[in-house]
Write a structure and sequence with these properties.
By secondary structure, the protein is of the alpha+beta class. The protein has a domain of 225 residues. The chain has 16 helices and ten strands. The strands form four sheets. A four-stranded antiparallel sheet has the order 1-2-7-4, sandwiched between helices. A hairpin with a 2-residue loop joins strand 8 and strand 9. Helix 1 runs antiparallel to helix 6 and helix 14 runs parallel beside helix 16. The radius of gyration is 22 Å and the shape is elongated. Its main location: cytoplasm.
């Protein structure tokens, strides 16, 4: 709908950023809708097949890079970020380097961020509505074809690093992004400048060498893709490099020098549930499907599904230090109804020389 010319949009933009912080977002910025360079990058990335089985990346065409095609009438995008690592977490490297434990990406340890952030964005829209009356908007949190990192960069919230993750010079990269598409002609913020320089630590540390060039990620090799998005068997050559990472991977962020500025999360819902910040592989592998569903209720981990969860854990157990406990746990699943699970269990047993 048309918006009133009597509104002071510069003052409204200041208020929106303040309201966002009051609602628990760490930061907010405003971007326009021109994503032409990013559209060309996306087309090139898709053409090279780097999206793997994520067909949805190509299915939506230009709606991903042209906000007004996704939500007609969009003039601006309010981009927000929310820190997700709670205080008092175990050292991530200590978990990764302990082969008996399972590593879950830090973002996935608490409540599913989609619901938390979408709720806050709706509240932000309600505050704007209270101030100016009805306006058109749509809230998105990783739930539609949105180039969220490019939008956040254009809104001044950070730059896209060589690992393709957004980095904020005051807060590192451990944060979620969300967007409010709107028809309000708000003043836009200056895009963030890049500060990676000659650093390539993220490229060098990637366990599966998924960062094939600066700013270029081949998702087919990325542990996050392998443990979450991939629905079939994990390529054999990538199983050993996965180590004990059973849901996602943080290595490229853990090594990033900018994360010395990372901020603790203030949202209690992001606190780890069921001691998943450093559990033993054998304990998780023993979960029944009912236990998996009940203990991951409201969590991002649900996305992998129970079979995918067992597949990932079997790989972790195959890479774990050999022990009677590990072999016994694997043998409990050797006759699992899922052919995919059985395949990975047999691979793990072979790693331990325990095939019968």
């Amino acid at each position: 709908m048309p918006v009133s010319t009597a509104i002071d949009y510069a003052a409204l933009a200041v208020d929106i950023k303040r309201w966002a912080r009051e609602l628990g977002f760490a930061d907010a910025g405003i971007a326009g809708t021109d994503l032409g360079d990013d559209e060309r990058y996306l087309e090139s990335w898709l053409a090279e097949g780097h999206h793997g089985e994520m067909d949805y990346m190509a299915r939506h065409g230009t709606r991903r890079s042209r906000p007004a095609e996704l939500e007609p009438g969009t003039l601006r995008v309010i981009s927000v970020r929310m820190d997700y690592v709670p205080p008092g977490m175990p050292n991530a490297w200590d978990v990764i380097n302990d082969g008996e434990k399972a590593y879950v990406a830090r973002y996935a340890l608490g409540r599913d961020y989609h619901k938390v952030m979408r709720n806050r964005l709706q509240k932000l829209a309600a505050r704007i509505q209270e101030r100016i009356g009805d306006f058109s908007y749509r809230a998105y949190v990783d739930s539609a074809p949105v180039l969220e990192k490019a939008i956040a960069r254009n809104a001044g919230l950070g730059w896209i690093g060589k690992h393709t993750v957004l980095i904020n010079k005051r807060a590192g990269s451990y944060f979620f992004l969300g967007e409010l598409y709107t028809d309000l002609p708000l003043p836009v913020d200056a895009p963030a400048s890049a500060h990676c320089g000659s650093c390539r630590r993220c490229i060098d540390i990637c366990p599966t060498q998924a960062i094939v060039a600066p700013y270029r990620l081949d998702a087919r090799r990325c542990i996050s893709y392998l443990t979450i998005e991939l629905k079939g068997s994990i390529p054999v050559e990538l199983r050993e490099p996965m180590g004990n990472r059973v849901f996602g991977c943080d290595d490229c962020q853990l090594i990033c020098p900018w994360n010395k500025f990372a901020q603790d999360a203030t949202e209690p819902d992001f606190a780890p549930r069921h001691s998943l910040d450093g559990p033993k592989l054998v304990e998780l592998f023993a979960w029944s499907e009912e236990e998996f569903l009940s203990r991951t209720e409201g969590m991002a981990i649900r996305r992998t599904g129970y079979e995918g969860w067992l597949r990932n854990l079997a790989v972790g157990l195959g890479n774990a230090p050999a022990s009677d406990e590990v072999v016994a746990a694997l043998r409990e699943r050797v006759d699992h109804p899922s052919a995919m699970v059985r395949e990975h269990v047999l691979w793990a047993l072979a790693r331990h020389g325990a095939l019968r």
